[in-house]
Batch of 3 targets.
Target 1
Amino acid sequence: MVLARALHRDVISIMKSNELHQELRRRILNLPGVTEQQKAGIHEDAFFVGRTMFMHIHGHGHCDIRLSKGDQERVLAEGKARAHRWSPETGYVTSMVDDEQDLESAMDLIRMSHQYFAGKANGRRMGAMPKQ
């Protein structure tokens, strides 16, 4: 009986994790101009604005988010994310999404990243337009 209850809790936990992961993906894909590439190299889900990957997810809830250097320094100093394990020099930070509160915090960082890289992409397009 104890084993059955533990198994039931584990199944419920996995279901909630899957639902949270899908909600995270849905919110990211609702940002303007965002596309997703699944199984992009070592990344399970990679998200792009223009041609720039601005974040990716490993597994359920492990979000690596690329920020401007200034935003990265501020976010790390404020304890809102952890330094990226492999490439912090490129502006990446890591945010873990384990519950609804984590989801909101991660989405704040994801929106910050999206805004920065969408602005850069728009600037490139604007700069490429012929002057009249």
Target 2
Amino acid sequence: MDWIQINPQLFSSFPPDSRYLVGVSGGRDSIVLLHCLFDLGYRRLIVCHLNHQLRGHSSAADASFVQGLVAKYNGKIVCQPSRKIVGQALRLPSVRTGKRSAYPTTRVANIDLELGSVDVRARAKRNKISIETAAREARYSFFAGVAKRRRCHTIFLAHHADDLVETFLINLFRGAGATGLAAMREVSTRRIEDVDLTIVRPLLSVWRDQIDSYVRERRLKFREDASNKNLAPLRNRIRRRIIPYLEKTLGRSIRQNIWRTAVIAVEEENWIESQLPNSDTPDLSVRELRALPFALQRRTILKWLRAQNVSEIGFEVIERVRSLLDPATRVAKVNLAQDRHLRRRAGRLFVE
């Protein structure tokens, strides 16, 4: 099988003896992530599972499965240290790196579990957003709540290379700029309510077929989500229709080429964002924004709106905000998602 390679420089920033959250749905991707983290010596994990209440008994069965999985990991006796992860690429599962201690110590894993439940369909109807958007917002709100309560603000998520390609295409088809095309990053910080959550995606260079091979070789059990076969959500149509058509028409390397473009976009966006002004202020100066080039106006507004926890920020929203910079504009209000508003008053922009 193809080896799953994980960047050791990424993990050097997140030592295994610290406490971390990890999102586990019960699907194969998150099961592989949890297995890899455990194999790398991460023993103080807090598994976070949210029941979206979208699939009836199947959703409840997913939660029960994750609960049993955590109990299974906690029953394992493990050797310390199990492997070295700093200084060279780690290849799983076939090649072990580092040396075992001549006198290995043993310990039982201390993996906690946080279960949550939310009626995503009702949330979508209440906030007038799609099921997919409501589910994503519910998950991150749940993660932020756990992070605040547990005082643990770093979470591992199982997004992989195919997810990166699909997200890139979704944002491209929606007319996103460079910022949207670089939306999925290996390490990012997202402000959710009053929590700054660090999101780590160690599998972004791992393809779905590699994950499938890993599952088969290790005989890992997982939950199958039947809704992944539903072609109504745009992501599923991209995955099952658009990408196979592109590969058939343009060649089998198209996924790798899109992935490379997305990675380049992320690296460039990271640098550009580091040059932008601080977005922690509760308001923005109209005069200072007006003095910036159009491209910087858009990026500054986007970064600031994200810091204000505004959802569904698209090009149209940013352009409506930019229209308030014109002193001749008589309208001083922009409607935002979830019944929020942005206003211009006394030369300042603020969200309420």
Target 3
Amino acid sequence: MFYRNSSIRIADVTDGTSNTLFVGERSSNLAYATWVGSVTGGQVPPKIPDPFSFGPEGAPILILGHTGDSSDVPPHTPNSPVNHVDDFWSYHIQGVNFLMVDGSVRNISDNVNPQIWWALGTRPAGKCLAIPIEVIGL
């Protein structure tokens, strides 16, 4: 939904506004970053020391994150020990807070099923789903 020159409308969120992530937490433990914007051509190096040997990411990760897909093995679910600087992370116990497209705020559990996690990051993929209570950490 957020990217340069985006023209995405609420009507384009066919997976359901309560089932689609809009904004999520990212703490500074993976990289020193801010949400105020990105600079074209900029790079964000992982916080030193980088235990996973990931290289720097491009400037868009200053404001954009992702849930990944089936090619991420192991999956980059919330607070995963294999997360890159563009993944979601918080210091909250058992989860990460997210603003959904419908305006609600949910805590998504660290133990979310990867297929549900990937679906939460899509808007028009026909993956409308009900989020299980255990996923939202209630």
